[in-house]
């Protein structure tokens, strides 16, 4: 490392020295030499006549102030410093950039044949010198000039106001965005596309043109995205009373994209993975993912764009809130329980793991070197849980009042997390003083509950203790305000009213102290408690449930989530006891009562198929690893497999009956049909482990009339290592080798191959014609699956998995540091493994650290990990 990059601190925030009211941009697009002219109207806001503009990798061609060449400037590290400036002026900056050489996919780059941009968080500074910070809001006008034949569509934010032809086969289009915005929401696209058009009439009767741009030939894969967009617009009006504010809404799908999608004002740019789908190419999971991401980016128009963030430490203000909104959208349109289960799995698995890792940070971080490193599960998913807790404490009506007040106060401005909480507090009268700690404290609290029933006084006492372990970033932890949702049941399954001090009380207990006891009166018998219902706070729950109590809750709990959770706790007990057994050389056992409880689930006639599928799925290897300080990779893998095999063998008849009864004729993507497929394919995963497995899986692959069933067959063959595995994969590849997006599913299966020669096959797969390390989707599918979904091979004692990861990371450090920095996460957690493995991983981290050109992204993570 030439010199250590500097961290920024939340507490150092300073308001901008100048404002930029208007920005007029001109792009003269050429593959390797694009000329960018940026004309800003600038006003000095503070004493100093010095203006600092951010800029990276730019070739500066000219600086003018009020039309005159300006010489009072200096190019410094990270930007341009202009001095002796008047109080108000027009600033013209000309820069030359090279989009074709931009493999980091930040700023202006080429994706396939098209030009596109990604500016969040700090990509605009790779386009021109500018005040690239979210609290500088300007009105943009953008003129795009390019070759007409190659780039018939020239797009930017806002409304198209003028266009024309030029000599030499070039043309131009000019766009104007009436809403002042920060630079991170700027977007430009130039290319040749097929366009799917529709329109939406808003609740107040305005017409909005909807346009989805996809690569030529992909029009038949854009319809689900359009439906999802229309559903999003409608839902935001109905549930949040929020209406769209421009005459046009455009979405462009591109193949080279670092993340899922980007909410640029009026011109969303999407990873094609979250737009393109038809039954031949996409699974049900893809369809649901598209609905969620289209919704998410659309909802940002209010939570993110109309009200943006004052600084990047406030990222959760827009992301936590928008994730909450997209989760609610998916829950209102589909199954609430299934959605909640999916979200909770993410928190309990990878988010808890992040909280326990060297990268641990509060949802509003205090210290950042590379902002791109903080688009995390903590900021997004835990951030959403924090919003959800406020929703639980306030209730829907008061929460919506809080939202309205938030917009009334902050529309058109850059706000802070504090502003949001204050609006919620003021609108509802609910005291959120202690609750605010969720924004500043990192780590996962453990909530330990004990209970005592007193038959003589008919009282039932719950004692609730909370403790948050120290994290690498924070040594002191305090008691949080935890909304703790409970219900009590009598032995026949009736709900017992909660009474304290002679009053009926709410199901949501306010846990605010280190240790607190709640005494419930009038409890006629020893009850069974249902605790942390709906996962009402992102905490680890500890309560010594007996098997019988959990089996009781699996049947009697009044909400589906609680039933699922009881099933998971029952499984957790036996996973843990069996891991211990295996470590002592004993074999894996599962009592009949547990098997019977799951038999009951499979035979239930009242439960929805999608929900049964969730009940039947074991916690992931990653989630289980999170339960341990020191992870025994092989023992966990062995136990999970053995428990699955026991259930498969014992419940074979039930699985088989379900599998055959749920066969569907014609394919449709409504929620009922999706649910049936997911249960049927869950049954297939189990049946694959039985004697008939190979035949059944092969048959499903041959007969499948949709991608969901095809992939279910392939992944069953993969995880059960069936004889047909290779044939199926070969067939799939010969059919889809020309379509990278469809091949991603194949790469993901290769990456997660539990077989012994997995790494060899992965190396071969890298030579597949559809593979390229330059494409983030391909890289994540193959390499990401290996690092995250292939525990046994990645953590092989030989160290070859780690060395492979190191190789890839060193290569990607220069080509695409953002993607490299996401890939590295599993290596950061090396302290959780035995000493030999630790040494092997440390060697890889050290070799990265020694690189001359180590990017800030990796520098930040590698140094934190090595400090741990
Ligand atoms: N706001 C973008 C994420 C940008 C990430 C930059 N590294 C997508 C989203 O959350 O909607
Ligand atoms: Zn977002």
Automatic annotation (TrEMBL):
GO BP, sorted A to Z: proteolysis
The Peptidase M1 alanyl aminopeptidase C-terminal domain, residue ranges: 547-867
Any Gene Ontology CC annotation: plasma membrane
UniProt keyword list: Aminopeptidase, Cell inner membrane, Cell membrane, Hydrolase, Membrane, Metal-binding, Metalloprotease, Protease, Zinc
Membrane topology: Peripheral membrane protein
Hydrolase found in the keyword field: yes
Localisation: Cell inner membrane
Catalytic activity field: Release of an N-terminal amino acid, Xaa-|-Yaa- from a peptide, amide or arylamide. Xaa is preferably Ala, but may be most amino acids including Pro (slow action). When a terminal hydrophobic residue is followed by a prolyl residue, the two may be released as an intact Xaa-Pro dipeptide
Pfam families, sorted: DUF3458, DUF3458_C, Peptidase_M1, Peptidase_M1_N
Domain Peptidase M1 membrane alanine aminopeptidase positions: 225-435
Record InterPro entries: Aminopeptidase_N-like_N, Aminopeptidase_N-like_N_sf, PepN_Ig-like_sf, Peptidase_M1, Peptidase_M1_dom, Peptidase_M1_pepN, Peptidase_M1_pepN_C, Peptidase_M1_pepN_C_sf
NCBIfam families for this protein: pepN_proteo
Family recorded in the similarity comment: Belongs to the peptidase M1 family.
Protein name (database record): Aminopeptidase N
Organism: Vibrio sinensis
Taxon lineage: Bacteria, Pseudomonadati, Pseudomonadota, Gammaproteobacteria, Vibrionales
